[in-house]
Amino acid sequence: MEKILLDTDIGGDIDDAICLAYLLKEPRCELMGITTVCGEPEKRAAVADAICRAAGKQVPIVAGLDTTMQPVPIYPTPDGAAALEYWEHSIYEKGDAPGFLYQKIKEYPHEIVLIGIGNMTNIATLFTVHPDAAGLLKGLYVMNGYFGEDALPDPYYNWNSWADPMASKIVFSSLVPIHRVMPLEVTDRLTVEAKRAEVLFRTDSDLMKAVFSFGNAWLEHSEKLTLHDPLAAVSVFYPEICRFERGNVRVETKLERNMGGTAFVPSKKGNVEIARTVDRGRFYRILSDTICGGF
Fold this sequence. Notes:
The structure is a single chain. This protein is an alpha/beta fold. Helices cover about 35% and strands about 20% of the residues. It is built from twelve helices and eleven strands. It has helices at about 15-25, 40-55, 95-105, 120-130, 135, 160, 165-170, 185, 195-200, 205-220, 230-235, 280-290; strands at about 1-10, 30-35, 60-65, 110-115, 140-145, 180, 190-195, 225, 240-250, 260-265, 270-280. The strands form two sheets. It has a nine-stranded mixed sheet, sandwiched between helices. Helix 2 (about 40-55) links the parallel strand 2 (about 30-35) and strand 3 (about 60-65). Helix 4 packs across helix 7. The relative contact order is 0.17.
């Protein structure tokens, strides 16, 4: 069993909800807690709770930070939270998410894998306020960064870094025993048309009905499903699904035209492993079979 903590900006893009669904159904996952980040984290926590309840699970959830270490020009809100009226859920107020994460990590030193699939504010605050936290983790798996050859249309495409560049810089520089990164140019390969979403994931369970209830607004708007975040979770349990390269990552925190931009420098002594390839077919099979199988 793997002890997992999940830090997420769930409530917008459906892939956060699919990632949570996978962790709830993965038989080797012991989900120790969930923290939420980004605009209106209280509503995001309620969405996470509703999905957990739909799976018949009770998981500790803390609504985290909605202010960033480095100011950004927008305040994203979780559009999918409009579906909360249809699902049983708890009401949340802002809490101390970094403190909660640290408490769990201290309780189980070198046993916990932290998965980060939102902007890095909660995790960077954890590492700043509690400098020993990174070394006490078993691993850190994040969906963050872009290291492709072509320039992005706009810096915000690299969302999890752009949404708090300073936090991204702190996390990329942290020294964690296993520090693996799923970058945008790799997760973009896991894109299907929106109409194929219900082929990959049957909606015959309360869990998946909840996932699509909170994610349909995103699917209808984007007309596609890119499984960015689930790759971070699947790679914890199936590390061979990706080929990784070790090195160091630099993050732009000053130039507006490349704000949050990430650059990779290969090095055998680097602190980070970035995914370079993904086995698409096996990834889809693992994710679909795990989520759509029975408890």
